[in-house]
Task: inverse folding
């Protein structure tokens, strides 16, 4: 288990409990190992609850970025059957930061698209840490076109720090690709639902989350810019990221109040990284509920619903 910096007291307590159990396994009977370890477990559970009771926006940002949270590939493996990945944008190449293809969700055909960050150093490099290049967004456009043609609902799983800002990506039309992907989301006459499973960063996230229904995991974030980037621009000091995180209103709770998202998916105590299987199943239930809410609507109604949703964003929940 990887601990975040604010979880250090918890790490010490759980580490001591494990040390005691290790002593017991070695046959050390100088202390009542199980009794002492159980007492520490109880204290650790209370501390965990206290730490996660009222997370600050910056701490939520840290949790959203936790390397052990379930990734797009984990959700696809657990929730979808007959998944057939489709590669390439038919123009330049394949972008491994974006995965997607045809699948079945609850035995109904669909198209699933998502950002993949990778689970270890090798896979993170392979997937470019979930930062898509233009060909990734153009691949998503191709998949959404296919979904629209065959009348298949689209499910997107968002987890990206933002679009890749490299020179090659800019030369190949990064901003244009993001804009066209966002436009395509608004045009397709099929149900489109999106879940922010970790980071929802910048236009790279909006290009996948311009949906009829948007859900966020409780400790995920969704923002026009990262707290570090915001602090660097506004105050020329990236160390003011904690202040920026609060000002950006990037938490699921703030965004629900503003009408940017529709649903908040409760995470297990301690975050999705502690109980990934439970989190994946909770996301699956919300996807099913959102699709049920849109079932039977005609293409024109779905398009109108989606556009109106985005035109009305930010008109409620604003206080002076």
Result:
């Amino acid at each position: 288990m990887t601990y975040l910096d604010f979880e250090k007291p918890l790490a010490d307590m759980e580490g001591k409990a494990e040390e005691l159990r290790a002593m017991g396994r070695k046959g050390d009977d100088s202390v009542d190992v199980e009794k002492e370890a159980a007492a520490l477990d109880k204290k650790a559970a209370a501390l965990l609850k206290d730490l996660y009771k009222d997370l600050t926006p910056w701490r939520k940002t840290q949790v959203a970025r936790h390397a052990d949270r379930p990734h797009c590939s984990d959700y696809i493996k657990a929730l979808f059957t007959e998944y057939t990945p489709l590669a390439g944008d038919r123009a330049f190449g394949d972008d491994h930061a974006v995965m997607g293809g045809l699948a079945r969700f609850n035995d109904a055909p669909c198209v699933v698209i998502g950002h993949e960050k990778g689970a270890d150093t090798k896979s993170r490099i392979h997937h470019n840490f979930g930062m898509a290049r233009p060909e990734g967004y153009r691949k998503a456009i191709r998949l959404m076109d296919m979904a629209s043609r065959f009348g298949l609902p689209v499910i997107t799983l968002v987890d990206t720090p933002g679009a890749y800002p490299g020179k090659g990506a800019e030369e190949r039309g990064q901003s244009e690709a993001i804009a066209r992907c966002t436009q395509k989301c608004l045009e397709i006459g099929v149900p489109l639902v999106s879940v922010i499973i970790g980071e929802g960063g910048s236009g790279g996230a909006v290009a996948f989350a311009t949906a009829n229904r948007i859900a966020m995991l409780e400790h995920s974030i969704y923002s026009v810019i990262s707290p570090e980037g915001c602090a660097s621009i506004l105050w020329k000091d990236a160390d003011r990221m904690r202040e920026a995180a609060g000002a950006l209103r990037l938490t699921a709770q703030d965004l629900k109040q503003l009408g940017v998202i529709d649903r908040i998916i409760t995470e297990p105590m301690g975050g999705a990284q502690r109980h990934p299987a439970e989190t994946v199943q909770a996301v699956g239930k919300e996807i099913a509920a959102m699709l049920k809410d849109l079932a039977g609507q005609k293409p024109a109604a779905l398009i109108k619903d989606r556009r109106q949703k985005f035109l009305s964003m930010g008109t409620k929940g604003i206080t002076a």
